[in-house]
Amino acid sequence: MRVMSDARASEFTTVLPPQAQTGRIHLRLFAAKVLALVVVAGALVSNHIYAAEGFADFLIESVGLMLLVVGALGRVWSAAFISGKKSKVLVCVGPYSMTRNPLYFFSFLSWVGAGLSFGALTLAAAFAAVFLLTHLHTITQEEQFLQKKFGTAWDDYVRTVPRFFPRIHSVRGTPNATFEALPFTRVIGESALIMLVFVGTQLVEYLHAQEIIPVFVSLP
């Protein structure tokens, strides 16, 4: 894998992010879960305004499913390049040649896809807002850490690769890749759970139709 030249990589020792930063990451994850639960709770007692089985309903939910699939597969793809290397090596191939934060980007797609899977554009916007509010600051902090660790190599990387939304035409591959099995397997498990989101949203719609779960508001 082309991550850095051997000579350049040998200048760095393994340095983990400061404990204070790790604490903030944990706080971000907790906040994301709380806010996501609030949005999910709202989704459970709301319904979309579109006709059931109509074209708008079909289109929105289909796009939601597509984003969930792309998000899940994208996270696995990204993990194949970064597992065991995070904060140790500057990876700049594969998905990391399109965006500096592919794991976050594909997670973002999954969150938006979850909202669309409920059939409501409003919920998709709410999930997107929750993700951005709880992740953007962490992304900035992590990039500041990487700049201090990798210096000019990071600066060169930043000049050619966007922070978040990918530049697809700039993707660069590699003939082989190595990764640590444990963190990679963990991401596969998380990605499998992402795919269950769509099943859950369809179950909620069924329970609404059967009036088992009450609907208090209709959303566009």
Fill in the keyword field for this structure.
Four Helix Bundle (Hemerythrin (Met), subunit A); 65% helix; mainly alpha; 220 residues
Biggest β-sheet strands, sense, barrel: 2 strands, parallel
Identify low-pLDDT runs. 1-16
- Architecture (CATH level 2) name: Up-down Bundle
Strands of the largest sheet, in order across it? 1-2
Taking all Cα atoms into account, the compactness measure Rg is 20 Å
Give an overview of the whole structure.
Helices cover 65% and strands 3% of the residues. The N terminus is likely disordered. The protein contains seven helices and two strands, in the order ααβαααααβ. The termini are far apart. A two-stranded parallel sheet has the order 1-2. The protein has one domain: Four Helix Bundle (Hemerythrin (Met), subunit A) (Up-down Bundle). Helix 3 packs antiparallel against helix 7 and helix 4 runs antiparallel to helix 5. It has 220 residues and is an all-alpha fold. It is elongated and about 60 Å long.
